[in-house]
Amino acid sequence: DPLGGSDGQEQSLPPPPPPPVSSELPAPRAALRNAEKDRKATCGFAETVACVAIAEYRRRQPSDWQLRQTCVAAVVCRRAPAEAASAAASPAATAEFFAAALGCGTKFVAPPEGEEAGEADEGRGYAERSIVRDLHAEPLARRAFKRFLHLEILSCLSGGAGGSSAFGVLELVGGTEDKQLRLRPGITFHFYSSSVPCGNASIKRWAKGGQGPEARLAEGLAPDQYPQPGHSKILFHARAEGQICFLEKCAARATLAGEVGADWPAGTRPFDGQFLRSCAGGVGRRALLTCSDKLAIWNVLGLQGRALLEVLPPIFVETCTIGRKFSAAHCARALCCRLQDFIPGRVADLQDPFRIHHVAVLGCSEKLDAGVYDGEGAGADFSDASCLAWALGDEAAEVLDGRTGLTMQGGTSLIAGPTFRALSSSWRMHLGTGGQRATAAEKHVQLAEAHVQAKRLLEAHIVKQCVLRKGTRSGDANGGAAPKRGETSCRVSAPSPETVVPPPSDELAAAIGRLVHCGACNMPGALQVCDGLGV
Questions:
Q1: What span, in angstroms and rounded, lies between the C-alpha atoms of 65 and 95?
Q2: Residue pLDDT, tens place only, 305-339
Q3: Which of 267, 314, 360, 503 could crosslink 302 through cysteines, CB 3.0-4.6 Å?
Q4: For residue 42, what pLDDT band results from cuts at 50, 70 and 90?
Q5: How, if at all, do strands 491-493 and 398-401 pair?
Q6: Tell me, what's the pLDDT at 176?
Q7: Residue 2 CA to chain centroid, in angstroms?
Q8: Which residues contact 28 (CB under 8 A, 6 or more apart)?
Q9: Which of 330, 377, 384, 338 is nearest to 358 (CA)?
Q10: How far apart, in whole angstroms, are the C-alpha atoms of residue 5 and residue 19?
Q11: Three-class DSSP labels, 326-366
Q12: Taking the C-alpha atoms of 458, 459, 461 and 462 in order, what is their torsion angle to the nearest 10 degrees?
């Protein structure tokens, strides 16, 4: 019987043998990493600005554009509703938003080095400034914004749109011979960057992260309303460690990590204070500062540059919205607060409106890249040299070669110096020559002269306050070795035996206690001097 034994009864089958055990471990699953981490927005206004900028970037990128791992910056215009210009504003009215300029890129054209740099300079356009040297997203967006303003001026002066520019940003004021321009009421500009700007803003030290005071000030505001900056005066206690120092862009291999006590972000090094460098034919070229430093300078001098001051007042942004790696305290420090003393009354001969303009720093949750990296060690790849710039009024975006500063076809860019000079010549032809125009021209000449003077004063201020000198403390007139990382920046000098140091009064001791608590300053019988506090 196949199912039973000799007695005819059923018997169970023996259990199957266990499967063979492999000595090899299963292959590990590929690591998955989000291109951008989830984050919280400061307010609805930041989300609005980010969505407008990202949507415009996706509309303007060429059909064969494959870049995901990149940085995008934009200048977004906010046009208040007509009712908002009057006292009786309608609560239901909402503002209009549109992108005025766009930049996308992570490259810069490094200057030639060595004794043979002169010939290379001439060939690559350094002497005549015919190339775009800085192709990071933020400078590209600012250049594109300048082009947008040039096109708007041409539109306005040529008599189109009934005295208004093509996109309703500028308008003519005064008589027909006067031809003065101004921003239309209710127009404001707002900066967006998909990632924290390179340089000082990316150094996450000396302050705690978070959303900052703007999050509290934005409570109850509609998504089309922005908060005012809530920046208090900062007591910079770590100047010697590079807390407010300016940095310049350099090749990654030239980064001076830890030279003076701070680990500088990759591709940057401390600025040496030389704004003008030697170049071919004796023509100077500007130092290539980081994007954090440039944004701080634009918050003093405006986005428009000097040439446009012939017909326009200076233009400043009201807010700065940032995506990846946003930290309010670090961004506020880098973009405006480290120049908090650059104001008339604190700086001799400085004239309004050129002064530090604090901006509301906002974080957004909207992602530029919502993709996922697959594989261990996968991360952002910024090796592609393609960069992009677009100004409202241009039919298509321009693609630039980050290795040369020219277009992909080798031509001069629409946002390069020669193109701006040609645009300036075009709109100057439309300016009147009558007496009223002469009066207006004199006013704008004075404004341009004030801009030049403010730029000179700002450079001197930066050299004095924001340059980290090798082997010395920033702001220490007597010099001395810089503290190593982890050490205190306080100087404690013991008095001589003949010196009697009286104890501070109770009031002074309480005041000092409220300002700072430092372990090195708790030494009895010593004269305490804390950098940055004057205590």
A1: 32
A2: 999 998 899 999 999 999 999 999 999 999 999 99
A3: 314
A4: very high
A5: unpaired
A6: 55
A7: 85
A8: none
A9: 338
A10: 28
A11: CCHHHHHHHHCHHHCCCCECCECCCCCCCCCCCCEEEECCC
A12: 120
pLDDT in tens, 54-105: 999 999 999 888 766 789 999 999 999 874 444 344 556 789 999 999 999 9
Closest among 373, 274, 285 to 108, alpha carbons compared: 285
> Mind listing the pLDDT tens digit for each residue in 465-524?
999 876 544 344 333 333 343 333 333 333 333 333 445 555 545 544 444 333 333 333
Q: Which positions ≥6 away from 465 have C-beta within 8 Å? A: 244, 338, 341, 474, 475
Distance separating alpha carbons of residues 153 and 427, to the nearest angstrom = 7
Tokens of 167: 């996109």
- Radius of gyration for the alpha carbons in the chain, expressed in angstroms and rounded: 29
CA distance 142 to 302: 10
Q: pTM of the prediction?
A: 0.79
3-state secondary structure 156-215: HHCCHHHHECCCCCEEEECCCCCCEEEECCCEEEEEEEEECCCCHHHCCCCCCCCCCHHH
The Cα–Cα gap between 407 and 209 comes to 39
Contacts of 23 (CB under 8 A, 6+ apart): none
Is residue 210 left, alpha or beta, with left meaning phi > 0 and alpha meaning psi from -120 to 50?
A: left
Neighbours of 471 (CB within 10 A): 9
Encoded amino acid at 12, one letter: S
Give the number of other CB atoms < 10 A from CB of residue 142.
Answer: 24
Q: Give the pairing type, strands 317-324 and 187-195.
A: parallel
Helix ranges, 368-434 (H): 417-428
The residue type of 51 is C
Separation in Å, CA 387 to CA 29, 69, 196, 254, 314: 35, 12, 18, 23, 28
Of residues 126, 77, 119, 75, the one with CA closest to residue 101: 75
